[in-house]
Amino acid sequence: MSVYRRWFCQCSGKPQELIYDQVLDEEIPGEPVCERCGASPSSDPKHTISFRDEDDYDG
Ligand SMILES: [Zn+2]
Hints:
single chain, mainly beta, two-stranded antiparallel sheet, 0% helix, binds zinc ion, Rubredoxin
């Protein structure tokens, strides 16, 4: 069982899920970025980023 972390940005007034950059053949994992405002978990000047952990299995 693993946990999948979903990231959201509130810049539009309602939570919008961030899209992970798919990085292949890289040791550095991609970081999710808001397509609308460009915020990311490590660059969140307006504090619009939030996340939710979800169990990644079929119940
Ligand atoms: Zn945003």
